[in-house]
Amino acid sequence: MEVKTSLLDNMIGVGDMVLLEPLTEDSFIENLRNRFDHNEIYTYIGSVVISMNPYRSLPIFTPEKVEEYRNRNFYELSPHIYALADEAYRSLRDQDKDQCILITGESGAGKTEASKLVMSYVAAVCGKGQEVNKVKEQLLQSNPVLEAFGNAKTVRNDNSSRFGKYMDIEFDFKGDPVGGVISNYLLEKSRVVKQPRGERNFHIFYQLLSGASDDTLRKLKLDRDFSKYNYLSLDSANVNGLDDAANFRTVRNAMQIVGFMEDEVQSVLELVAAVLKLGNIEFKPESRSNGYDESRVKDKNDLKEMCELLGIEQSVLERAFSYRTVEAKLEKVSTTLNVSQAYYARDALAKNLYSRLFSWLVTRINESIKAQSKTRHKVMGVLDIYGFEIFEDNSFEQFIINYCNEKLQQIFIELTLREEQEEYIREDIEWTNIEYFNNAVICDLIENNQNGILAMLDEECLRPGTVTDITFLDKLNTVCAEHQHFESRLSKNSKFLTDHSLPHSCFRIQHYAGKVLYRVEGFMDKNNDLLYRDLSQAMYKANHKLIKQLFPEGNPAKVNLKRPPTAGFQFKHSVGTLMRNLQTKNPNYIRCVKPNDKKAPRIFTDSLVRHQVAYLGLMENVRVRRAGYAYRQAYEPCLERYKMLCKQTWPHWKGPTREGVEVLMADLQVSTEEFAYGNSKIFIRNPRTLFSLEEKRRGCLENLAALIQKIYRGWKCRTHFLLLKRSQVVVAAWYRRYAQQKKYTQIKSATIMVQSYSRGWKARKILRELKHQKRCEEAATTIAAYWHGTQARRELKRLKKEARRRHAVAVIWAYWLGLKVRREYRKFFRANAGRKIYSFIMQRLMQKYFLGLKRDLPSMSPIGGSWPTRPYRFLDTAHTELRSIFHHWRCKKYRSRFTDERKAVFEEKLQASEIFKDKKALYPSSVGQPFRGDYLEISKNPKYQKLSSAMDEKVLLADMVNKINRANGKGTARIFLLTKNNFVLADQKTGQVKASVPLPDLASISVSTQNDGFFALKLKEGSAGATKGDFLLSSEHLIEIITKLRRTGATAVNHNHLDIDISDEFLVQFKQDKVCVKFVQGAPKNGNGASCKRKNNRLLEVSVPSTA
């Protein structure tokens, strides 16, 4: 495998957009698409990383990849998020520069995963040790806790962060993490009480109901059924790929690792349960005598259970939902709340309770992960914050989010320009001013303390009298009408009066990423974010210790009549603090891009990506980077990469590297306008110049490769010749020795042969004499025996003749007596009495025969050969016919019990009998063995899982066979698979398919008549598999393999049976040569069965043990 030494090696598309030529929005998008299609999800813009969400797992985040990018130059390897994390960590550790990593993008673009990857990489490359590992584990485990309470399923993302997070990771002087601090921004608390269609509430609610034990739910007075809670949407309660029960166990474990006590965890779960109960509280109207409507709680069961969870008196909380107390100086005024106001108070309490719980969690995590020592530490900040948002209906939340992104874009451009300018100054390169869009005017429109939109919104919220969203819009139309980035239908600017795309209740701001239309409805309420003081005081009265911490303003001893700061003011202050924090650190940027809205892999939607490229300001970033010199590289790697292009620098340059680069560029005749020399780097202005150098380098490398090949081949041939020369001398010496040994052996054999013939002749002569003497003695004995036998036969013949005479006399006398009796009694019988007696006797005999046959019927087994003997000779024909009829009947009964599978087995056994009976000595031993087919259990055995999944058809037979090697006659273990249309040979160890042959390509099968398992599969000439030749195999289940091959092959080739050649000698085609396979009987070797041995290039001899 080629080792990469530069970003430019084997580059798919352009790895750094700064080098893109020509630079247009279309070419920018096309380059992203090209890299995305090849699973290259990361692309650079200088030091900025563009990250495309692949929506699937890729093998680029393994521990091996971590080691590959560790301590490597940023541009040395392919673009990766690990390269940016490594560059930031090394700058922090080695140069003592505080770092910040800014991760931005819209929901679903992969920001949270990117922050996890950065943190996991830093945890992997920093030091080890018990205390260090504990800190790393706590930092990493804070993510599941915050995700459970701050993330939710949206239409764009199943795990969308609904808050902004900034984490400062603190390191000691060695670069080991010692702690951290987390800041959270603008939790989307409105999601607690209402979720858009197709979205869910925060994960923790579903995780608690799905994963908590029955005992825990009983203590929390909860039920697992989501439909029983008004705050939980039901249309997206279950999300594919999210296991809420398992995630709940992960969150509980993470809280334990971070340092939460068990009573703290229980308190947090009680507050989560209280929020769910709070959503089930409903109100009904009730009229009073004074004409005012007030509200009452419908069903007090949920209110009661909530009060029991929080330790609040039910009457106190019930009154807080029905009345509102307003204090002005020394006066208190109590007013009743109608039903809509009561629902507003309930939802406001739920949002504040959950929001403050989330802030308390962040504070509690910070207490656990903060650094123990008070000394100054190096800091790496990771910012995971929402990207620019443009929806069909944009409200206060989108306005605040887009304001934050305007500030981030402002600092991004400023820090990028500052970084470029510092590098130019450091390298003594002339700095030229770069023209770019400065969005400070937009930031000023929003945050100006005098006439900014946020300031006017706060002013309207604090102004006495009737204030509404429309009065706020009127004020904007008055103050901001002439601003070039503000548009409103009702402003003084006449050009928008006829703009029908701009509704009357909306205003539009031209952000750096495009125009966004904001609907003013809800701006005032969301900015006020009021919680009635009665509810705060009711919460403070709770016996629950955590509730008291969350609502300190409810303390009657510390009543503060000052209005709390608005949401906009708080967020503006937080953003200002964040910007000042980022200004003190060296920035690193990750721009996350979502390729499609379907959350599906391998889909790239041009319009969606183009939209994100615009609002992330990526094209503006590229133009800023390319305004001066597009590419820069240190002298040493530049000289190392291109030194082969100049004879003076190749192969080694002995002087300073800068002088070597100067000589190189002069020799290549590159225009001086295209590059500049810095103190430590060379700066190249145009990407075309760089690509020209790369093209020349590629051609030079090809020439160098040809030269190396030529030298190597010459050395190899010389070495081979010298080896042959030495071998010839050795071979000649060994041959002379062999010839003399052979001559001596021949003389010795001839002498022994002559001796053996001589001794044999003498022995045969003596044997003939002894045999003649023995035959003479035996002849006398034989003659005497024959004489005695003749005498005995004569005597026996005489005795038999005399016995026959006596028997004949007795028979004649018996017939005579019978005749006399018949004549005497004939007068007493009718003429046909004899026939009736005969018929009666015959019937009785037949009845007796059938009753005896019924009693003595043989077994129902079709192979049973027993049958009762016939008692009378006249029943011979009937006896035979009845035996045949009974046999056919019991065979029919036996067959009727057959299943299709068993019938197929017997058909295979029958076909095996037709093929091999009386033809193959191995056949009798296979009759009693059932045909199993799958001897390897390939579908169940995990060892062959990969091979089983590679089979498109059902496996009819799977067995282990030996493939015979022509070279030495030895066998190699192979897996033999038979399917409906193919047979396959696969490697025993790896399961890799070695050969797959269609059954129609199989011409015939050859086997021997001996008791062996060898068989040859012969392929048709001209078929695809015939180029490698036939297959000579051996198996313990030869009978079954060939039977199944013939049955399956007949189906595959339209009922043309395969030819089965049964012979002790047949030919096998091995590639281009035909080899004769001959079977002979011999003694077994080493206790084994048949063995194959190569006799010569044309003969393989198989020795089969004799069966005698």
UniProtKB/TrEMBL annotation:
Record domain Myosin motor: where: 12-698
Domain TH1: 920-1106
Alphabetized UniProt keyword annotations: Actin-binding, ATP-binding, Motor protein, Myosin, Nucleotide-binding
Highest taxon in the source lineage: Eukaryota
Segments of this protein annotated with the region Actin-binding: 575-597
Record keyword Nucleotide-binding present: yes
Keyword hit for Nucleotide-binding: yes
Recorded GO MF terms: actin filament binding; ATP binding; calmodulin binding; microfilament motor activity
Binding locations of ATP: 105-112
Xref: PANTHER family: MYOSIN, UNCONVENTIONAL MYOSIN-IB ISOFORM X1
UniProt similarity note: Belongs to the TRAFAC class myosin-kinesin ATPase superfamily. Myosin family.
Protein name: Unconventional myosin-Ib
Origin species: Gadus morhua
GN (gene name): myo1b
